[in-house]
Amino acid sequence: MAKRRKEKDEEEDKPFKLPKFDEQGFIKKERRNIKTTFLAFLFGCLMALVCFGFWALMGSETVVRWPLVLLVAIANAAFLRYIFLRLNVDLSDFGRKNWFTTYGVYFFTWLLVFIVFTNPPFYDDEKPRIDFVTLPEIQEFGGNVLVVAKITDNVGVDIDEITLTLTDPDENVSTMSPTKFDIENIISIFEIQILII
Fold this sequence. Notes:
The chain is of the alpha+beta class. A hairpin with a 4-residue loop joins β5 and β6. The chain folds into two domains: 94 residues, no CATH class; 65 residues. The relative contact order is 0.10.
């Protein structure tokens, strides 16, 4: 027991020495970390642009569009290692924590930029909503029919693009512009005259 106390006393008497700080090594390591973070950010932006192209080409009818684009983003994360090696980034002491941070920066950059690209004003995949009614519901030949349509869209409605296309039983197609337009409520009124044939 006395020996242990003596050894503890001797250890406490020794002065504490600060470890030598390697300033050059620290600066080199931090520069490497900044470079890998910046490259992961740029690669995330590039992959978001590529995935946006796939997203737009697949169209809104594709059910598996989101899982496919996500899979492309995750699979291409493996290219970060080859990019670092190609650009002569020293990965000798690059640990799990560094890789986790790098992949996190890449993925969240990709996700943020991709969400921005797939929403207005860059991309509008939502079709306009059209509510319409015909007045009167039943009409004889020789009378007039009013088609009243309220058109709304999440971005806005281009007034010059609003037309009504009619197809008769003989497959003849006719297109007409609104006869009246209420710009405040986005209501288009088409007046159609039914002729006796």
